[in-house]
């Protein structure tokens, strides 16, 4: 579409009642980011109330009309997705504004490929609109959905705001108040009870700090978002509070009444001791679907991305469905009812590293098409990648009814459960307990639901080929290893993000317009040439990108982060402050000074602690930042055993974040947040 153009959705799809709206952008540096927001407007062009404003801290409408799903990585950027159920939108809402904003001094002109796309319930893209004239704007209206003549239409807007999200919100009737509000007494006690250091990735999940989140939109007004992240002590400027608070698990586990450590606590979901894969699949499917039906926040979160409406959910297992002479029995069925209409999805589950079977999934797709079901959901330990489908299925284009095929990883299921019970909260204590029992089941070694655990059959031959210098460019086995590496990094992001309660996304750098197949082929050729696998993670609140390098020639893993030099002060004070921040870091941490014209001095933290000035260039070259690195031996086997490569990557990331990055986050993050509060983007709704 072109700027100012409009189109009726009914003319594009018969399934346009539920939409997936995606806002995407890319950044050459990997640091660019923005957040989507949705405003519901009445006939006067204003919000009916502050609850009509949805953003990352108020992500869902109580009636299911709007749900923000968060970011997913793309080839060289990220994509923020929103589910909009037009059939659930209140009749007095005339327009839905789709916008995005940035923090502080960041501007949209620094991002590339600004684009909004709209897909229907089946995932088919209906339209797209690219913004090509972004400059100094810190907020942008990408487009809007509006009623006209009894139908919904989309208009490509492309309007920017130099005044940020606060200026945009004010234009649509949201009252902005820059004053901080007092914190209620009960929350003040909670703040005082917080530990001095943040929960790290290597701490036990039971020790995660409780986080109280605002009530749902129907019960409390929204607030223009304050900067992320949100430790309890820093959430005072987020806007109005409500008496009702969501439930998270306590920070410290209750004292056990067991006589000795050999007594095991009774569990709602006993972990199977049988070695049968079929038994594991049946048990895991039943446990998951039961919790989805009983905990609305969890069930809705897992199905919203698949086009399911917000409504009454029921789940079933081992359902027999006719299919010619041989009836089929999918592992599960999910049904959601809203306003007398049913949304149905068949579920096919695999555990313990078993792969999905194309012919089996194809049968379920055909059955769904004949019976008018909306989706087939596959669930396994594998992680789906764009451009590399886990199963190949064929669709009959002559059929009027379209069926969507979606995939979930067990790691993603555990990630969403952990976010709810540790950080965001659920409706009541019983729901929190159910999710905790589910998480305990999934994380047990006998459940078979452990996420990506095997680098695949190509791993050993590729390592041997690199070791003997016989691996040639164009080898398909190298492409398979690159795909496995990408799946592993996606899973690392899910696990780390769930433990921290923050967004953790892989950064993928590629030339504009490069498709995923071409990008992975180029990475495979580089692997053959250099013998290295590289990845980058963007973690909210960290001062830089966390980089991971697996050098298959030396057998070493390197985790590192580049910390930019402060804008003010003197180099010696920078070096001293950095050493103070790293007081708890390992002595073998490698510190390197980055200068404009090349590499600067370097050394271990043990040597720099008594003399921080040794890290400064002797010739006075301008310092651009510091690179901090830890090295670790990598596992040799392809799996997740004690000697496995996957486990060594997990341990390296955990150690580096806990001992290095978390200390930079706590100190440097406060300075950045203070700067952001001084801008108009961080004001709160009155």
Question: How is this structure best described in words?
Answer:
The protein is an alpha+beta fold and 686 residues long. Helix content is 27%, strand content 25%. It has 13 helices and 25 strands. It has helices at residues 164-171, 185-192, 277-294, 296-304, 358-371, 410-424, 429-443, 459-467, 476-500, 516-530, 571-581, 605-608, 645-677; strands at 6-8, 18-26, 35-41, 53-54, 66-73, 77-85, 95-101, 112-119, 125-131, 139-148, 151-161, 176-177, 312-317, 332-338, 341-349, 375-380, 404-409, 504-507, 532-539, 546-551, 556-564, 590-595, 598-604, 623-633, 684-685. The strands form 5 sheets. It has a 7-stranded antiparallel sheet. A 6-stranded antiparallel sheet has the order 1-11-10-7-3-4. It is globular, with a radius of gyration of 25 Å. The two termini are 37 Å apart.
Short structural description:
With 686 residues, the chain is of the alpha+beta class.
């Amino acid at each position: 579409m072109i700027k100012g153009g409009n189109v009726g959705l009914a003319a594009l799809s018969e399934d346009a009642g539920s939409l997936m709206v995606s806002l995407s952008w890319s950044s050459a540096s990997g640091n660019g980011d923005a957040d989507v927001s949705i405003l519901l407007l009445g006939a006067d062009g204003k919000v009916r109330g502050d609850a009509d404003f949805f953003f990352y801290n108020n992500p869902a409408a109580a009636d299911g009309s709007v749900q923000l799903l968060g970011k997913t990585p793309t080839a060289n950027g990220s994509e923020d997705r929103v589910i909009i159920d037009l059939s659930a939108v209140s009749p007095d809402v005339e327009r839905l504004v789709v916008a995005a904003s940035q923090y502080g001094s960041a501007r949209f002109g620094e991002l590339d490929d600004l684009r909004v796309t709209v897909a229907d319930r089946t995932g088919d893209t209906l339209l797209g609109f690219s913004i090509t004239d972004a400059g100094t704007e810190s907020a942008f209206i990408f487009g809007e959905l509006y009623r006209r003549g009894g139908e919904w239409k989309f208009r490509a807007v492309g309007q920017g705001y130099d005044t940020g999200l606060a200026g945009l919100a004010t234009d649509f009737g949201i009252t902005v108040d820059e004053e901080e509000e007092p914190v209620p007494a009960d929350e003040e006690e909670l703040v005082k009870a917080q530990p001095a250091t943040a929960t790290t990735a290597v701490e036990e999940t039971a020790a995660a700090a409780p986080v109280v989140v605002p009530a749902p939109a129907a019960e409390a007004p929204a607030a223009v978002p304050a900067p992320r992240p949100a430790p309890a002590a820093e959430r005072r400027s987020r806007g109005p509070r409500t008496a009702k608070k969501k439930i998270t698990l306590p920070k410290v586990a209750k004292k056990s009444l067991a006589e000795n450590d050999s007594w095991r606590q009774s569990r709602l979901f006993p972990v199977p001791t049988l070695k049968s894969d079929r038994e594991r699949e049946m048990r895991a499917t039943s446990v998951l679907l039961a919790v989805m039906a009983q905990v609305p926040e969890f069930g809705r979160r897992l199905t919203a991305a698949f086009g399911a409406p917000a409504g009454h959910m029921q789940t079933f297992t081992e359902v027999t469905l006719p299919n010619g002479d041989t009836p089929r029995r999918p592992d599960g069925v999910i049904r959601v009812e809203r306003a007398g209409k049913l949304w149905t999805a068949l579920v096919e589950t695999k555990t313990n590293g078993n792969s999905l079977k194309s012919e089996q999934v194809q049968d379920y797709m055909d059955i769904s098409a004949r019976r008018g079901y909306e989706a087939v959901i596959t669930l396994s330990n594998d992680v789906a990648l764009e451009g590399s489908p886990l199963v190949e299925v064929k669709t009959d284009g002559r059929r009027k009814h379209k069926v969507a095929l979606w995939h979930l990883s067990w790691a993603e299921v555990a990630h969403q459960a952990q976010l709810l019970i540790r950080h965001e909260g659920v409706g009541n204590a019983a729901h929190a307990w159910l999710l905790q029992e589910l998480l305990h089941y999934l994380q047990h070694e006998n459940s078979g639901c452990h996420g990506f655990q095997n680098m695949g059959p190509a791993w050993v031959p590729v390592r041997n080929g690199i070791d003997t210098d016989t691996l040639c460019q164009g080898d398909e086995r190298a492409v398979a290893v690159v795909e496995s590496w990408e799946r592993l990094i996606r899973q690392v992001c899910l696990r780390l993000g769930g433990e921290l309660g923050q967004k953790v996304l892989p950064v993928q750098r590629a030339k504009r317009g490069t498709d995923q197949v071409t990008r992975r082929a180029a990475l495979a050729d580089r692997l053959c040439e250099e013998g290295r696998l590289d990845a980058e993670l963007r973690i909210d609140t960290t001062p830089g990108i966390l980089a991971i390098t697996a050098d298959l020639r030396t057998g070493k893993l390197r985790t590192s982060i580049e910390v930019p030099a402060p804008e003010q002060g003197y180099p010696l004070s920078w070096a001293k402050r950095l050493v103070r921040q790293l007081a708890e870091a390992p002595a073998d941490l490698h510190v390197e000074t980055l200068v404009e014209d090349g590499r600067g001095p370097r050394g271990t933290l043990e040597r720099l602690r008594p003399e921080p000035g040794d890290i400064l260039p002797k010739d006075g070259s301008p310092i651009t930042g510091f690179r901090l690195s830890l090295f670790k031996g990598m596992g040799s086997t392809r799996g997740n055993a004690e000697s496995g490569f996957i486990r060594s990557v997990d341990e390296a990331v955990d150690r580096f974040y806990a001992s290095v990055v978390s200390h930079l986050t706590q100190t440097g993050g406060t300075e950045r947040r203070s700067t952001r509060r001084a801008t108009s983007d961080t004001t709160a709704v009155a």
